Amino acid sequence: MSTSQAHTEAHTAPSADQPQRPPGQSARQPDSATARRRHSKPITDKKHLRKYLLVMSLLTVLAIAVTVGIMTYDNPAEFGSRGWWLIAGMRRDSLLTIAVVTLCHTMATIAFQTAVNNRIITPGIMGFGSLYTAIQTGFVYIFGAAGVTMLVGVPQFFLQMIVMLLLATGLYTWLLSGKFSNIHIMLLIGVVIGGTLASLSNFMQRMLTPSEFDVLTAQLFGNISNARAEYLPYAIPIALLVTVVLWLRSSKLNVMALGKTTALNLGVNYKRELIGILALVSILISMATALIGPMMFLGFLTAMLAYQFADTYSHRMLFPMGFLFGYTILAGGYFILRHLWDAGGAVTVIVELIGGTVFLIFILRKGRL
């Protein structure tokens, strides 16, 4: 053996005090932090699991406390009497309305943002609120102040819901199945239609008398008191049915969150899933809007909080946390403003103010839409 070959073998051979690698093991193993970052499961480690369970537990306790507070606080009747249960039953209807509206907005917003692959856009961009305003304004413009009462009742509730649903489904089935097949064009046309309906509503409102305008304004703000108890037996099963369908499609939503190209490569029929999700979103938002009126930022607020505190891609973990956040915020605001400050009608205004502020902060921090 030559001197150079011996020197090379001595240089490359492992020394006695160096640990021997088992056969087939790579030279460099990733550390624990890198392994956690590369983990594909929704829960990366025990610390993440403890954080998620802690947040869910706190939200559950707060939700129960707020529910008990609304049901029992400042009830003038004697506990257990017929009058006490009558008042508690009326408050129960308000809690059910809050739960249904929160469920609809949370499920719809998270699913919609996954479908369009954007965590800023909300389903309100499809023009649901503008169409609701146009319907209410049109009835008052044609029939006067009595037009508001003409929209009260179960048939009228379903009529408003169906009209909003037809607008949304007709819009995206036409645009997503046509030659354009572009979701951004669909969203842009939704913005244009919403702006057109808003301008039409403003024009009709200028032609109203002051008394008619006052009656109309009370209906145009999202208000829990707008919902009637006879709507709930129909709204609750529909909301639960759509929620179950979205829950069962959570795995598809997880894949769609990776983007269109990745979802197609993984075998997802992207266009069919997209149209199906948008149809379910339209049902939820149209029903919630017909129930209490338009709310632009409730879904955005609950979805954003769920993204921040759940810190996972799994929709089966995002959905329940978003619902608990929304229910606690809306029910807590209702309890404080109605029972402590005697301003129950302003709860949706306050929630919209907070949601809009969070939206602006998010935009300014991110720097783009």
TrEMBL record:
Entry membrane topology: Multi-pass membrane protein
Domain of life, per lineage: Bacteria
Sequence similarity: Belongs to the binding-protein-dependent transport system permease family. FecCD subfamily.
Organism listed in the record: Garicola koreensis
InterPro entries in the cross-refs: ABC_BtuC-like (IPR037294), ABC_transptr_permease_BtuC (IPR000522)
GO cellular component, one term: plasma membrane
Protein name: Iron complex transport system permease protein
GO biological process: siderophore-iron import into cell
Region (Disordered): 1-42
GO molecular-function term, one example from the UniProt record: transmembrane transporter activity
